[in-house]
């Protein structure tokens, strides 16, 4: 049995409720949304370096680079390190945009693995969060953004993550293959998602099928909701 079956059923059964809850969050606008949408608009641009700058800015606006006390918080690589890690896989990224999640082949997973393993965007040892968020702006047709606090906590019950590249790739593939794709393949959900994506003025974060599923996870995991005080 799919280990994510309960979560798949939760998202499918509560899609509209979670969608409403997600859009109740007031802090959804500003640079986080602006750079996300501008980056996606840049896909396929002949100005590849500018496109990478938009990805870099998006990740920074999403909280992937924080200058906190005692050096705490996530840190990104310099832009040149990120750019140089991606320049050599530009062709693979363009090929991956042709992947159909409804008919995944071994070659598709191999291609995604190559992209994942090459990206250098985070200065820390962990790759999953930073690389998935970068890839979500390179190949939004097949890769969602993944984070610890919401995605991993919701799907795995823990935000802990082993910092080892093959482990992290296998975990990303597992989450996409066994959770995101089954949800995306569901006919009723796909219809709901299409209706939301057709209404970009009201639902500007619904930029792809997999991003919508990510939005629902965020809502299910309590994104933007105040923590309950202990009585």
Description:
- The chain is mainly alpha-helical and 231 residues long.
- It has helices at residues 5-13, 15-22, 31-41, 48-64, 79-87, 90-96, 106-118, 128-135, 148-156, 165-185, 187-197, 209-220.
- It has one domain.
- It is built from 12 helices and no strands.
- The longest helix is centred in the C-terminal third of the chain and has 21 residues, at 165-185.
- The model is unreliable at 226-231 (pLDDT under 50).
List strands and helices in order, with pairings:
Layout: H1 5-13, H2 15-22, H3 31-41, H4 48-64, H5 79-87, H6 90-96, H7 106-118, H8 128-135, H9 148-156, H10 165-185, H11 187-197, H12 209-220
Features:
231 residues, disordered C terminus, 0% strand, single chain
Which outline best applies?
globular
Order of helices and strands: HHHHHHHHHHHH
Structural class: mainly alpha
Q: Kindly state the percentage of residues in helix.
A: 55-70%
Total number of domains: 1
Strand content: under 5%
Radius of gyration based on Cα positions = 17 Å
The strand count comes to 0
Supply the number of helical segments.
12
What's the assembly state of these chains? single chain
Uncertain runs are 226-231
- Give the CA-CA distance, first to last residue: 39 Å
Tell me, rounded to a whole number, the average pLDDT: 91
| Biggest sheet layout | none
């Amino acid at each position: 049995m799919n280990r994510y079956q309960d979560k798949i059923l939760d998202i499918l059964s509560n899609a509209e409720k979670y969608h409403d809850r997600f859009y109740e969050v007031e802090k959804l606008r500003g640079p986080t949304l602006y750079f996300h949408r501008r980056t996606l608009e840049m896909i396929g641009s002949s100005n590849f370096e500018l496109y990478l700058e938009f990805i870099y800015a998006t990740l920074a606006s999403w909280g992937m680079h924080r200058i906190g006390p005692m050096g705490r918080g996530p840190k990104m690589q310099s832009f040149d390190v990120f750019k140089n890690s991606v320049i050599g896989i530009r062709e693979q990224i363009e090929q991956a945009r042709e992947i159909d999640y409804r008919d995944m082949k071994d070659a598709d997973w191999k291609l995604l693995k190559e992209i994942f393993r090459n990206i250098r965007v985070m200065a820390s040892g962990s790759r999953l969060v930073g690389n998935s968020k970068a890839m979500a702006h390179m190949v939004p047709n097949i890769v969602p953004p993944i984070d610890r606090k919401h995605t991993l906590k919701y799907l795995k019950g823990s935000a802990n993550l082993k910092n080892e590249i093959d482990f992290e790739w296998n975990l990303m593939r597992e989450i996409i293959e066994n959770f995101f794709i089954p949800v995306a393949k569901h006919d009723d959900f796909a219809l709901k998602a299409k209706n939301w994506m057709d209404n970009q003025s009201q639902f500007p974060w619904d930029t792809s099928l997999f991003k919508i599923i990510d939005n629902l996870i965020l809502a299910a995991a309590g994104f933007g909701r105040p923590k309950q005080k202990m009585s």
